[in-house]
Specification:
Blueprint (H helix, E strand, L loop, with lengths): L12 E7 L7 H12 L3 E7 L5 H10 L2 E6 L13 E3 L1 H6 L4 E5 L2 E5 L2 H11 L8 E5 L3 H11 L4 E5 L3 H14 L8 E5 L4 H7 L2 E4 L23 H9 L7 E4 L8 H9 L2 E3 L2 H16 L5 H13 L9
Parallel strand pairs: 1-2, 1-3, 4-6, 7-8, 7-10, 8-9, 10-11, 11-12
Antiparallel strand pairs: 3-5, 5-6
Helix pairs in contact: 1-10, 1-11, 4-5, 4-10, 5-6, 8-9, 10-11
Length: 316
């Protein structure tokens, strides 16, 4: 893997992703396919950057003529503390930046994760405007998605294993709503009433790491003390995860998490996080180049990489 300190200036436009770890990010194969299709002389590489190296590495990339960067775990929130960053209003509000653009001496910050999730739903002909949305998790991904979806949902509830985190996030989101939207119900809570929360929702967004990596064998329901299992669980879930429900899990590897398998078996429509990955990358591509990318080419690159097992994380 290249080191940012070994990169030299060249006539080719340079882009990259900073993360720790980052070796199995799918962003390089996806973005390089987009640049190639567009006929742009550009290269996109993954760079392993430790948290304590983030500030100096971003400034080094700027000095070396990089045009843009993506940031993944654990840098999306940390970058906001740097004085050199000019974040847009949404990324500042959401508390996370995943895309940097170097322009006229400035370093601009954007968040394309939430927009990627929105476009992924629309790609599946799911239109969240006016719908009741349940968000599972209260971490960084939940925060950016919840801020965006709160503007268009008729009702939004955030639940988390630690209820206080969900309640705090919900209160923060409500405080940022414009005055004309403050009649909207935005709430937070724990997992104790998850089945009723699912019953009340039209769209369920699963934003935690459950179902991937070391948590691959776990579902959200496994986090609830004394929750039933086996055939008893399957019968119970059929009463709640009905065919009118949409369950969207931001995890894309494996292609179907345990939570999605359970939801699909119960009868709900299920969507994994692959197209969110593609669309957030496409939005970053457009920020950098001013051009639309070829979604089908990016999607195919990701599919082939997943089939070749090139990624075992959801680092974007």
């Amino acid at each position: 893997m290249p080191n940012i300190n070994s990169v030299t200036k060249s006539s080719v436009s340079k882009y990259g992703v900073f993360g720790y770890p980052v070796s199995q990010s799918l962003s390089p194969v996806m973005q390089n396919s987009a640049f190639s299709k567009a006929g742009l002389p550009a290269v996109y590489q993954a760079f392993e950057v430790k948290p304590e190296e983030l500030e100096s590495s971003i400034l080094k990339a700027q000095a070396d003529g990089f045009m843009g960067l993506n940031l993944t775990i654990p840098h999306k929130e940390a970058v906001l503390k740097f004085d050199f960053l000019n974040p847009d209003s949404f990324s500042k509000m959401a508390g996370a930046v995943n895309t940097l653009r170097f322009s006229n001496g400035f370093i601009e910050g954007f968040n394309t994760d939430a927009g990627g999730a929105m476009l992924a739903l629309e790609y599946e002909e799911i239109h969240p405007a006016g719908k009741k949305i349940l968000v599972i998790g209260a971490g960084g991904a939940s925060r950016s998605l919840s801020f965006l979806f709160s503007k268009i949902a008729s009702e939004l509830k955030i639940i988390n294993r630690t209820a206080e985190r969900a309640e705090k996030l919900a209160a923060d989101i409500f405080s940022h709503l414009p005055e004309d939207l403050q009649n909207k119900k935005i709430s937070g809570g724990g997992f104790a009433d998850i089945l009723n929360d699912i019953s009340n929702a039209d769209i369920i967004l699963q934003t935690t790491e459950l179902g991937m990596g070391v948590y691959e064998s776990f579902s959200v329901f496994d986090q609830i003390p004394n929750f039933c299992s086996g055939e008893e669980r399957a019968v119970l879930l059929k009463k709640y995860l009905t065919s009118d429900k949409v369950v969207f899990d931001i995890v894309y590897h494996p292609k179907e998490t345990k939570f999605l398998k359970e939801s699909r078996a119960a009868g709900a429509k299920t969507i994994n996080g692959m197209m969110m990955l593609v669309f957030q990358g496409a939005l970053a591509f457009e920020i950098w180049t001013g051009q639309k990318s070829d979604i089908s080419v990016m999607r195919q690159a990701v599919l082939e990489a997943l089939d070749n097992n090139q990624s075992i994380t959801t680092n974007r």
